[in-house]
Amino acid sequence: MVPDEAALRRLRADVRAFLDEERALGNFEPICDSWLEGHDPGFSRRLAQRGWVGMTFPPAYGGHGRSALERFVVNEELLAAGAPVAAHWIADRQTGPLLLRFGTEEQRRDLLPRIAAGELYAAIGMSEPDSGSDLASLRTRAARTDGGWIVNGTKVWTSHAHRSHIMLTLVRVDPPSQEDRHGGLAQFIVDLGAEGVTVSPIRVMTGEAHFAEVALRDVFVPDAMLVGQVGDGWRQVTSELAYERSGPERFLSTYPLLAALADEAPASAEAELGRLGARLWALHLLSERVNRAIEDGSADMVQPALVKDAGTRLEQEIVEIAREVLDEVGGGSATVRRLLHQATLAAPAFTLRGGTNEILRTIIAKASVA
Amino acid sequence: MSTTERQALAEVVSAMLAPEPEGLPEGELDTRAWTTLRDAGMHLLLVDPALGGSGGTFADLAVVLRAAGAHASSVPLAEASVAAALLARCGMPPPEGLLTLQLVDSPRPDSSPPVPFGRAADHLVRVEAQPDGGALVRLADARRATATHGANLAGEARDHLSLRDDAFRDVGLLPSWWDVRLLTAACRAMLIAGAVERIRLLTVRHATERHQFGQPLARFQAVQDLLVQTVAAAHTAGAICDHLAERMDPDASALSAGPAVAAARVVTGEAALSASRAAHQVHGAMGFTTEHPLHRFTRRALAWRDEDGSDVTWRRRLGARLRDGGSATLWALVTDDRGPLSARSAS
C-alpha cells in the first residue's frame, strides 16, 4: 500500500532527524558517492534498527513490508546527506529482492533477516575480466558434484567483496545455444569465506580499493545455495538490473558537493546553480515515477535507463561546474574542496557502473523504435 | 477533472488541432482552429462558471496547452486563456472574440512589448505592474490599434500595437503582477513540452522510415544516440511539467509555485535545444527545409524559450533562491517545495 504525500513527508522528516543525531554525534561526515565509498557497518546496523534496511521485505522475513516508494524516499534522504550506506547497499537493493522473487524458502529464512538487520553484506559477482557489457559471454563455470557444485572462474569489479559475506555469482552451467546465448546460466550464493575463494582488492584512481577481483578455484557450493533453477540466471540478473538502475544513487552521488556549493557560490554563479538545480529536480521526479511504477508493476526498461543516463551525466557536470564556480571565489572552504577532490576522481566511473551509458542508450533506442 | 478526464480532454483537443493547415502563411491566425477551440470554450478553462467559463484548474489548461504545442497551432491560446482568466478575476465576463495579452513590468506608461497575434485579436488585455507589486488589468479594442507586424523566431505574430492610453479601460486591480508573470511562464512551459514531444515523435518516425545503406537510420548507433536525446528531452520536460501542473493552486495562483515554474522553464528550455538539435541531425537536409514539418516545431520550441521570461533569466532566479537559502534549499524544494520565488531581478 502506497502511503499518501503527507506520510512520505513525515518519513523524510524522520530520516532527517536521525541524520541530524548521527551528525551531532560525529558518526559521519557527508561524502560524495556515499553508497559506494561510505562503508560503515555500525551505521548500517543503526539504520536497520530504525527499520530502514530491508524495508520492502515482508515482516515474516525480518523486513517491514513497506513500499518501493517509501524505500526510495529514505534512500534519497540518505544519499542527499552523503551518509555511509555502502555496507548494506547491495544486499538491500537487489540481493534481498532477488531472493524474495527467485530464492528458496530456506534461503529467504536464512539470509533476509540478517540483511534487514544491516548485518549481512553481499557483493555482485557478474562481471569478469573478459565479460563486461557482454555479460552473457561470461566463463565462470559450475559443474555438478555430490551434494552441490564446483565453481571455477574469476569475477571482477565486485564492490566490497573483501568486506562482504556472500557473493551472488552468475555462472554458466550449460552451454549456450544458437537461439539463446542467455540460456544455461544460474546464480549461486557463494560464501566469500569458503575454501578456494581469493579476494584481491583493486585500487582505482580515487585511491580507494573497494573494488575487488574474486578468484574461485574449485569452490564447493552446496545445492541449497542455487538461487531458483539452472537456466534462470539471465532472467534473475535482468530483474536485478531494473532495481539497480532505478535508484537515487544514479543522480545523487555528487549532491553533497552541489549543496555545499550553494553556500559558497558567488552571485555570478546563479544561472549555473539554477540550471543544475532544475535538472536535478527533473531527475528526482523521473526517478520517483519509476519507483511508483515498480510499485504498481508497470515498470519498463526505458525510464530507469533514461534516469541513469541523464543522472550520471548530471553527477559529472556538477563536478565541473563546481570547480569553475569555486575558482571564482579562490577555491572555497576546506569542506567543499575535499568534496570536489573526491568527486573529481570518482567521476569517470559514474557513467560506467550499473551498465555503461552506451549500453543503456541502445536499450532506450531499441525500445523507442519498437 | 480526474486523470482520465484530463486524458480525454487532451485527445479531444488534439483531434481539434490535428488538421494542421499546410500553407497557412506565417503570422496568420488559424481561424478554423481558433473557432473550434472557442466554440468548445477551451480558452475559458480558468474562468468561473458564473462568468461563462468552465471553472477548471491550471492542470486542465496545461493539458490543452501541451496539445496546442504539439500541433504548433497558430492560435494565441495561452494568451487568450490567461487574458480571460484575469478579466474574470476582476469580475468581468470575458468578451466575445479573440483575446490577447500584454504584460508590462516597466513603470513607463508608453512601454509596449510585442503582442502575440496583435494583428488578429479583437481585444487586448494589458497588465501593468504597479509600484506596490499589484497588477492593473486594462482592456482595449485591439482593432482600433495601428498594428505593426512583427514575428518571433518561429514566424508567429508578435505585433506592436499602437494604442492611446485613453483607448484602455481599467477593469480591475489584482494583488500581484508577479503572480500573473508566473502564470504566463507556466503556460509557456506547457507549450514547449508539447512541441518537444512532437519533435520526439517525428524523429523516431523518421529514423524508422528513412533508409540509407540498405537499412533504417535507427540501426546506426550514432543515430540511436540522437534518438535517445529526443526521448530524454521529452521525458524530462514532461516530468517537470506534470509536476508543475499539479503544483499550481486550483485557482491558478502561481505565487507559491514560483520555484517549480522556474525549474519547469529551465528544463523545458534545455529540452527544446537538445531535442531540436538532435531532431535536425537525424532528419538531415530534408528536415531543414520549410517543406518538411519539423521546423514548425523546432522553431517554436526555440522561440518559446525566450518568451514570458527567458529560460536564462529563470535559471538565475532559481539560482538566486538556492544561493539565498543556502545548502538545504534545493533539497527542500525538490522534496517538498513550498513558498515563493522572489520577483526581484536576478543579477
Shape of chain B: globular
* SS-based class of chain B: alpha+beta
SSE sequence of chain A, one letter per element? HHHHHHEEEEEEEEHHHHHH
Largest sheet of chain A: 4 strands, mixed
- What's the gyration radius of chain B in Å? 20 Å
Main β sheet profile of chain B: 4 strands, mixed
Which percent band covers the strand fraction of chain A?
5-15%
Helical content of chain B (DSSP H or I, runs of 4+): 40-55%
Characterize the quaternary organization of these chains.
heterodimer
Q: Please provide the count of β strands of chain A.
A: 8
Q: DSSP strand (E) fraction of chain B? A: 5-15%
Low-confidence stretches of chain A: none
| Spatial order of the strands forming the largest sheet of chain B | 1-3-4-7
User: Which chains have the largest interface?
Assistant: A-B, 43 and 47 residues
The helix-strand sequence of chain B is HHHHEEEEEEEHEEHHHHH
| First-to-last CA distance of chain B | 40 Å
Low-confidence blocks of residues of chain B: none
Question: What's the short story on this structure?
Answer:
Chain A has helices at 5-24, 34-37, 41-49, 68-80, 86-102, 105-116, 233-245, 255-264, 270-296, 302-328, 334-346, 357-369, and strands at 122-125, 141-145, 148-156, 166-172, 185-191, 197-202, 211-222, 226-227.
What does this protein look like?
The complex is a heterodimer of chains A (370) and B (347). Chain A is α+β, with helices and mostly antiparallel strands. Helix content of chain A is 48%, strand content 14%. Chain A contains twelve helices and eight strands. Chain A has a four-stranded mixed β-sheet with strand order 1-4-5-8, with helices on one face. Chain A has a four-stranded antiparallel β-sheet with strand order 2-3-7-6, with no helix packed on it. In chain A, helix 10 packs across helix 12. The longest helix of chain A is centred in the last third of the chain and has 27 residues, at 270-296. The model of chain B has no long low-confidence stretch (mean pLDDT 93). By secondary structure, chain B is of the alpha+beta class. In chain B, the strands form three sheets. Chain B has a four-stranded mixed β-sheet. Chain B is built from ten helices and nine strands. At the A-B interface, helix 8, helix 9, helix 10 and helix 12 of A face helix 5, helix 6, helix 7, helix 9 and helix 10 of B.
